Structure formats: structure tokens, C-alpha cells
Amino acid sequence: MKAIGSVALVVLLAASSGAQAATTALKFGKLWDGRRTIPNAVVIVVDDKIQSVAANGAIPAGAAVIDLTRYTGMPGMIDAHTHMSFFWDPASGTNPLRQPPRPVAQTVTFAAANARRTLEAGVTTVRDLTGFDGADMQMRDAINRGAMVGPRMFVSGVGLRDNVIKNSPAEAGRLAKAVLDGGADWVKVYGSTGRANDLTGEATVSYDEMKSIVDTAHAMGRKVAIHSYGPNAARDAVRAGADTVEHATDMDDATIAEMARKRIWYIPTINHNQHYLERADTYQFSESDRANFRDYIARNVETARKAFRAGVRILPGSDAVFTAFGTNMEELRWLKRIGMSNEQALQSATVLPAEMLGMERSIGAVAPGYFADIAAVEGDPLADIEVAITKVRWVMKAGAVVVDRR
Description:
This protein is of the alpha/beta class. Helices cover 37% and strands 21% of the residues.
């Protein structure tokens, strides 16, 4: 039952056969449930949901028992910014940023490896912000059907850019509706330049266009993420009432204060550029690119530190592409550097992004009635954040064991 594929098959067969509810008892040396630590915790899982959580809890007769007493249990983590369908094969001899085109079905098939590595990092849910040709929606739907093993996905489809909005607030609103009608869960807006080694951050979408997108999405009960590498698009995103702002550096004090007042989430994605810097040879980045990355990272850290001190709600997003899957929670190191305690950093990866997704009563905590998304880590993540980053040994998602490295 350690193989991911066989576990998924068992779950599918049970569901299709109308089998009786499967009950599993998980025994942990201790459990951090998202808010408190429970010693000698017993978690009872029935099918895909948690039934009970208690210290030295009773185990129902006939329950399958998984002994994880060597480990600390914690909620499956949530990566607030990924690109799950961005696949690259190191054996291809290509630059990840300059690959030949491939059919979308092939992309989805290959990207199953990204999904697997993400689970291995203890991440059971992601918000995925840009997938081309519907690849992200196809991955989400395949995972939901049990045809692919991967994290729960909330997706944006293709991001809206200035070249399709065409300097028209009315068109911006129409495009947002079209994205959501097409099956996306969120709307992603590229409010500025900035990607890979382009760190310019020049605003490309106007405030009026952003406002039209936000108002349209909110009227449909959906949310908007706005990409801004620089301060100007971030300022307009906050004024427009975006739900999340991605990446933004150099935000002024007024923008940060307004972000805190409006309770807009900030996902700084600091480690994304550190990841590029550490793999500059793979991406064929120049020496000047590397210097630009160092400068941008320093400004990104300082902006995030100011935002945290001002009370802005900050979440970890890996911005994972190509080579970054499996390193999803390295952002927690940066959140520690900006001033978070270990528990604050862990909550930023569990209970808080669940709230951002509107799923705070279903995921992000180990509690009765929640999906059984649970990780076992070697050590105490409240004492050492590296435990949550590099020492994930076992993962359950929705009641199915999807990773077992004990």
C-alpha cells in the first residue's frame, strides 16, 4: 500500500463498489492540529473525513491502525501560489523556459510528476495561478475524479494580461466572466511586468480595469489574485479590492496600511527568485541576471517584513515552476526571517490559506468534520521549522495514504 498508484486504486474501487465506510486510526506521538499540540493523539478517519481527535483516544473495533507514534502529526500544508502544469524533463537537454510546444494532454500526463512531488513536500492543497490551454483545469478535474494522484487544486486558468484586456474596463470585466464561466475557480491578473529574469515590475493594467475584474468576480462569488512585481500595480490592486496580491516589492507605507485594513492577503513568493538564483546555470541566466535576483530578493524581504509588522496577512507561495516541485515549503524559511514565529509560519501554511480559499471549515486543520489531510513529520516543527520543510515522512490526503517514506 506504499505505492501511490495502488492507494488511489483502492480508494476508487471502494467508492465504486458502495463499500462500507472505512475507518482508520492514526496514532501520533504528538499532533499539532493547526492551533494546539495534543500529546499521544489518536485521529479517527472515516472514509475521507476526520471523525475525532483526542489524546489517548479510543480506537473503534475493526479500525485499521497506522502507528505514527515516532512522528509529529500536522495538517497537510497549502501552497498559495503554484504553476502545477509547468513541467520540464531534465533529461531533455532544454532550457526549462524555452521548451518546444507539446499537446496539452501530454503536458497534463507529464505534470503528474509535479503533483506527486508536491504531495511529498507535505502539501495537500494548492492554488494554481495560470495554466495554459486548460491544463490546470484538466489536472484539477483528474485529481478530483481519482484519475491522478495529487494535491487538491484551485485554479485560475489563463491569467489576464494587458494584451487581451486592450485598455478597456468593460472588456476586462467580460474576460473575467469568461474565465470563470470556463471553469476557473479564481481570476488571475498580470498587473505588471515581471517573470523569470524580468524583474522590472512596470504596471500594465489600469486601476479601472482591475476594479472591473474584481467587481465582476465578486458579483459571481469568486476571488481575484493580482500579480505585481512592483509597487504601482500593487497600489492599484489594493485600491481595487483584490483578494490577494502576489510578489509585490517596494510597496509604500500607505499601500501596506490599506492592505492590512482591507485584510487583503499578501503572497511575497520570496523563495521563487532564490530558487532561480540557485539554479541559474540550469536556466542559463547571466551574471547580471544573478545580481538582479539578489537585489530583488533583498527588496522583497524588506517589503514583506514591513507588511508583517503592519499586520498584513502573509501566506507562503512557492510560485513553483519546472524545477521547484517538492521544494514548495522553502518559503517558510523566509517567513521566519521577516519575523514570524514557527507557529505563525506553520499557520500561514495551514489554517490561514484555508481561510483565503474559503475552505476554513474543511481543510487546514486536523479537526472533526475536516478532510483528512494530514502529514507526519520527523521532529517538532514548532521547535524547528526545517522539520516541516525537509522531514515530511508520510502524507494522507482525503483519507488516502499518498506518501509513505517511513
